[in-house]
Structures are given as structure tokens and as C-alpha cells.
Design brief:
Two copies of one chain form a homodimer. With 108 residues, chain A is of the alpha+beta class. Helix content of chain A is 66%, strand content 13%. Chain A has a single domain (6-107), classed as Arc Repressor Mutant, subunit A, CATH 1.10.10.10. Chain A has five helices and three strands; from the N terminus they run ααβααββα. In chain A, a hairpin with a 2-residue loop joins β2 and β3. In chain A, α1 packs antiparallel against α4 (44-56) and α2 packs across α4 (44-56). The first copy, chain A, binds a DNA duplex (30 and 30 nucleotides) through α3 and α4.
Chain lengths: 108, 108
Amino acid sequence: MTQPSPDLLFKALADPSRRALFERLCLDGEQTVGALTAGAGISQPAVSKHLGILKQAGLVLDRHEGRQTHYSAQQSALAPLVDWTGRMNRFWEARFDDLEDLLKRMDQ
Amino acid sequence: MTQPSPDLLFKALADPSRRALFERLCLDGEQTVGALTAGAGISQPAVSKHLGILKQAGLVLDRHEGRQTHYSAQQSALAPLVDWTGRMNRFWEARFDDLEDLLKRMDQ
DNA sequence: TTTTCTCATAACCATATAGTTATGGATGTC
DNA sequence: GACATCCATAACTATATGGTTATGAGAAAA
């Protein structure tokens, strides 16, 4: 199971409809396409397409049961996002530490 | 100073060129447009446009000095992103806790 | 079997987006 | 003043994207 690229994740989550679908799956748990379509303000094919993109990004899992498909959030797929923001902030902290060191040295 | 919306942030960071610019500002610190253009594989106007979008999302600050503009990363703007991923994961943990509770109760 | 239901895909359209070249304004240099 | 440099904006183009309606495949119901 390879890590999804941050690029795929950012792109998948950049769209408000997709983010709303993902959030709903996170908050309310597994849902069928029909249920998700009911809540979203868009057509069923649009929902299916969005779910396909979320799935490709590793953000959701699908489970077929009879004639309906259940989707659920795969929150662990957010890991690369957390890593990325962490990396960006780590450098901020590092440079902040540098600044602190500098100020300390200037104090002495 | 109002929090930038997750939507603006996700959209701003969804583009690889913009993310590369932001990463570079995070890692290497303040840069002029010229310096950034040198590294990026795109034209100077393209870089300027991307920087404009990053600025609108609150991700970068600009500082004018003579005829050049220096851009720097505003990492604190990532806060809404961290919050969002946190919220999505909190619910995961909550439901995980529920599962644990359930298993414990089943054990007794 | 026939019909109905659920979802995915196809085909299409309008708009958004990311890039380009051209240009101009402001600032520094000669 | 004349020229060069740095950046932003304008105008344009090609492609990507998000939506639609139409349709079809597969499973359940009749």
C-alpha cells in the first residue's frame, strides 16, 4: 500500500463538493451513493465522479453490497498532508529556534 | 487578521507550481520574484500570478524594496489546514474509542 | 422473464485555470 | 535625461475541470 502523493490529496480536497463528501463520510461514517447524493446539491453522476476521484486519492474505500455501493472515509490517507504541513512548520520552528539562539547570544 | 478559509488554502496549494514556490519560501526563506523565477520552470508573469494567489490565501507576505519585491512564507496561515485534518482525525479517534469501548463491554 | 432500482460511464458543455507573449510603471544606473 | 532592470498586469490560448443529461450494466423484486 503505497502512500498517495500530496499532489493527489491536495487536488482531491481542493474541490468544495469533494471536501464536503469526505467530511460527511468522516463525521457520519459509511454511506451509500444514494444517501450521499441526497445531501449534496449535485446530481448522482457528479457524486459518483467525485467519489471516484476521492477513491483514486486513497481518501475513501468502496464496498459493494447488492446493487448499492457503500463508501467510507480512509482517514489514514491524510497522513501525507499532516506530514507536509509538519515539514513546512518544522522549518519555521527551526528558524524560530535560530532566532532565539541569536537573541540569546546577543544578550550575553 | 481573519483566518483564511480552508477552501482558499486547499485551492492555493493544489497547484504544483504554487506548492513548490511556497515550499521554497518555507525552506530557503525570503526570496525576490527574480530568484523564484530562476528556480521555477515557468515565466516571470506566471510566477507573479501564483504569488498573487498565495498572497490572497494568506500564505505569503510581500515586502517592496526598491524595484524588487521580496516574498516570504507565512506558515501560520497553515493553521486552518492543521485544524481541518485534526477535526477529520478526531472523529476517527472518537469512533475508534467507541469501538474500543464496545469491545471492552463485549469482553465483560 | 420483466421490471425496477442503484450506480457508473459516456458524451457533452461552460467555465476556470495555468500558461504564454506583450507591455507599462516604477526604480535604479549611466 | 536616457537607458536598463524588476515586477505586475493585460490580453490571449489551450487545456482541465465540474457540472449536466442520456444510457447501460448488474442486482433485486415482481
